[in-house]
Design a protein that fits this description.
Order of helices and strands: EEEEEEEHEEEEEEEEEEEEEHEEE
Shape: globular
Strand content: 35-45%
CATH class: Mainly Beta
Number of helices: 2
């Protein structure tokens, strides 16, 4: 669709559909509460700036914004698998949803002034080449003082299927190594950088350097204390059993031009259904995964 064909989705002066980086269309939101951007490519929220505060999301200035490649930063949506495909290593990492375009279905200004945007992706021949299942993936983003993103997967196939999903959120911090994640004390985790060794978190998780930890049976909320920036971000999740904490560290980041030299500027705190908690859906059934991000009040 051309930008002109999206005009019916505009809600002046708070919602407009514009041409973004790489010529990709995105929904621009400028409400009383926050400014935000959500691309149709991947149903990808790339910006959430609460009024009177710094950006909550980090998006790489070097991300290509090119079809076939994932956008680096913001909130990438992983579906229908997390990480590398178990059997087909040549398949896209974290699934194909984030490298396919969605259809914009609606925009709305709610009675309390929040803005809601809906997008949908449906199975087709392209998706079946990677995953031979019929599905509908609906994504809604609600922008207020809190950013809420929901993924609803509906099984339109004739057989049950299982899937993994994840909001691979890049949070903007002032200094990742000194940042602490609170709320995971006593929670079991798998350490991907230590041959998937299992452990139990003791106290706050201090990032320190590169890490990839998948926490199982996670709490519904964690706090990210950006100690260098003097701010705490609250991350909440519903319908998602895992919390993943990831930062590439200096050496890994140096090998990727999209994040080289930027590893201290972000921390990924992700909500997921993965590893030991895939979602199983019967035909006709749906599952909703929801995350919320806000600045914790002092």
């Amino acid at each position: 669709m051309s930008l002109k064909e999206y005009e019916s989705f505009s809600i002046p002066p708070v919602v407009s559909i514009e041409e973004g980086r790489g010529g990709l269309p995105f929904v621009k939101i400028a409400s009383d509460f926050a400014e935000a951007e959500m691309y149709l490519y991947g149903a990808h929220v790339t910006r959430f700036d609460p009024k009177g505060d710094r950006p909550i999301l980090w998006t790489s200035p070097s991300s290509p914004f090119t079809p076939g490649k994932p956008i680096r930063g913001g909130i990438p949506l992983c579906f229908p698998w997390f990480g590398p495909h178990r059997q087909k290593k040549e398949f896209p990492i974290h699934g194909f949803a984030r490298i396919r375009s969605f259809e914009l279905t609606y925009t709305a200004r709610l009675s309390d002034g929040r803005i809601r945007v809906g997008m949908v992706q449906k199975s087709d021949a392209e998706s079946r080449a990677f995953w031979p299942r019929d599905y509908i993936l609906e994504v809604t983003a609600t922008v207020g003082k809190v950013l809420e993103v929901s993924l609803t997967v509906t099984n339109t196939d004739r057989e049950p299927f299982s899937f993994e999903d994840c909001t691979h959120t890049y949070l903007a911090v002032s200094d990742a190594p000194s940042t602490a994640v609170r709320g995971l004390d006593g929670v079991c985790y798998m350490d991907r950088l230590a041959n998937d060794a299992l452990g139990i978190q003791s106290g706050d998780l201090i990032v320190g350097g590169g890490l990839t930890k998948i926490f199982t049976d996670s709490p519904r909320a964690v706090s990210i204390e950006d100690r260098a920036g003097g701010r705490v971000i609250l991350a909440e999740q519903e319908g998602m059993a895992n919390t993943v904490v990831w930062n590439p560290g200096k050496e890994t980041a140096a090998a990727n031009p999209e994040i080289a030299g930027k590893e201290k500027e972000f921390l990924c705190v992700e909500a997921a259904n993965c590893v030991n908690h895939p979602v199983i859906l019967l035909p006709g059934c749906s599952h909703t995964s929801t995350v919320r991000y806000s600045v914790e009040k002092k």
